[in-house]
Structures are given as structure tokens and as C-alpha cells.
Fold this sequence. Notes:
It is elongated and about 80 Å long. A 4-stranded mixed β-sheet has the order 5-3-4-6. The protein contains 7 helices and 6 strands. By secondary structure, it is an alpha+beta fold. Helix content is about 45%, strand content about 15%. α3 packs across α5 (about 130-140) and α3 runs parallel beside α6. The chain has 2 domains: about 5-90, DNA Methylphosphotriester Repair Domain; about 95-160.
Amino acid sequence: MARRNRTLSSGGNTFGILDAAACERARVSRNPRFDGRFFSGVRTTRIYCRPVCPVRPAKAENVTFYPSAAAAERAGFRPCLRCRPETAPFSPAWKGSRTTVERAVRLINAGALDEAPVEELAARLGVGARHLSRLFDKHLGASPGQIARTARVQRAKRLRSLRRFNAVFAEVYRRPPTEIRRAQPNG
């Protein structure tokens, strides 16, 4: 059965054209350079793996290649319990708990802790407050509250700069910027 060339990608990054023969060589040799670039589904077991999977390679005629773990799952395969393909490079799970911390920091920067406690932020992320604090300490060396205070200080500095700009503008033009904006025709 002849297999055609396909562009394989993972995590939104295109890695170029890889044909089935190149994928097969990488799978059999367990080449780590291909980890996350494609996944192999074994039709006889309905399991899919990373190219670096330590189990004995399946026969080539029983293998189909997929550009992502999601594509293999969509085709009806389940992840291998040895190589954990759903945690391959470029997948959100590959980043592990850092993903949770990154989401939390984005929410904090958007003001999530300005009026709500850490427990509420943790609940939004699907973890406990103590666990979230441990993750922050591990990845950032600070607590969620400390990160929120720093974010507030940065916002205050920007506002202070804006006030200073308004004061200098009023000094130079003898009127505030809002008056100039109101005088301009809409269009």
C-alpha cells in the first residue's frame, strides 16, 4: 500500500514535509528529533505512540502516522501508557503545571485578585488555593498575592505616567488633552 507525503505539524508549528518512510525510520530508530512532530497509531491495538516510545515497534503494515495526538485520538486511537503521547513536545500538557500558572498570571494581570480572593482564582483554574500557591512558588518564586501586588504597582505606575503626561500637556498647551479631543470633529 503506497502512502503519500503529508505536511505534518503539531501545536501550530509546521515541520515540513515528512513522508511515511521518514516517519517509519524515525519510529523504528526512536529518533528523539522527531518527538512531537508526528504520532504513530497501531491499528491492531488501537493505541498511538510518540516516535520515542520504548515498547517494541509494531509491524510497519499495522502503523498509520498522524500529525498530532488529537488527530490520532480523533481516528479512534487511545494514548500509550508508556510514552504518554498526549504530553509530547508542543502540547499544553507538555508544559505541565506551568500552563496553569501562565493562565493564572494572565487572569491576575486582568484584575482577578483585585476584588476576589485567591480561592476564587484557584476555583476558576480548577485547582485548590494551596496547590495554586505551591505552583506559583515553584515556577515564579512568589505567591499569587505577591504577583497581584506587583501587577497593581505596574498599573499604578502607568496611571501615574498618564497623570504626568496630562499635567505636562496642560502646561504646554494651556488646556487638558480632553478639551483638545472634544474639539476635534468625529470622523
